[in-house]
Amino acid sequence: MTEPVERPVLAAVAGRRSWSKVTDVAPSDAELLEVLGAAGRVADHSALRPWRVITLRGDDRVKLGRALAKAEGDSKPSTKPLRAPLLLAVVVSVKKSKVPAWEQEAVAAGVAHMVSLLLDDAGWGVFWRTGGATRAKPVRKAHGLKKGEELLGWLYVGGKPSTARTGRHKTINAKAHLSSMP
Fold first, then answer.
1. How far is 60 from 66, CA to CA, in rounded Å?
2. Which of 5, 137, 152, 181 can pair with 90 through a Cys bridge, CB separation 3.0 to 4.6 Å?
3. What pLDDT is attached to residue 12?
4. pLDDT in tens, 132-164
């Protein structure tokens, strides 16, 4: 009889969830560097590394709230960025290459998802926010984006509340998403 094989990566991925409410603690820059070093190992055609991550802490989140309000035509700053102590702005930095822009965006999105998984596995609560404002001029300016760069969204990061319910995840019907070539 064969021994069951432990599959910690599969268990971590299967147990991942979004944490829409987080506490006021956040990982340090040193912890983020370790996570980004691992996340940067995603499949990347031509090893372009067409991504970067911008940290927003403290008043940076207030600045983003003002930029979001301006982008959306609101007079009061948005409080959405204050929902977590740390926001990680995920930026695709499209490089001039034979690799198409869409593929470079896929790499940046892959890094964002990998960061989310790694932070969750390290005990942090994470949720990903996007929206139309990610491409708005005031938001681009607030992040200091350069030509050829686009904001994909923000990972909101904080502590996992001890009072949070684990939540029920719907089981994925993998058969509905797997097929063979016709």
1. 10
2. 152
3. 80
4. 899 999 999 999 999 999 999 999 999 999 876
Q: What are phi and psi of 73, to 5 degrees?
A: 70, 25
Phi and psi angles of residue 23, each rounded to the nearest 5 degrees, phi first: -90, 180
Terminal-to-terminal C-alpha distance of the chain? 38
Whose CA is closest to 23, among 113, 85, 111, 100?
85
Q: Where are the alpha helices (DSSP H) in the chain?
A: 8-14, 29-39, 59-72, 101-121, 137-143
Please name the amino acid found at residue 55.
T
| Crossing angle (nearest 10°) for helices 29-39 and 101-121 | 130
Rg (C-alpha) for the chain, rounded Å, is: 18
pLDDT digits (tens, 9 = 90+) for 15-32: 888 888 999 999 999 999
3-state secondary structure of 145: coil
What is the residue type of 140? R
- The answer to whether the CB of 85 falls within 8 A of the CB of 158 is yes
pTM for the predicted model, two decimal places: 0.91
How far is residue 9's CA from residue 16's CA, in Å, rounded to a whole number? 11
Tokens of 130: 């996007």
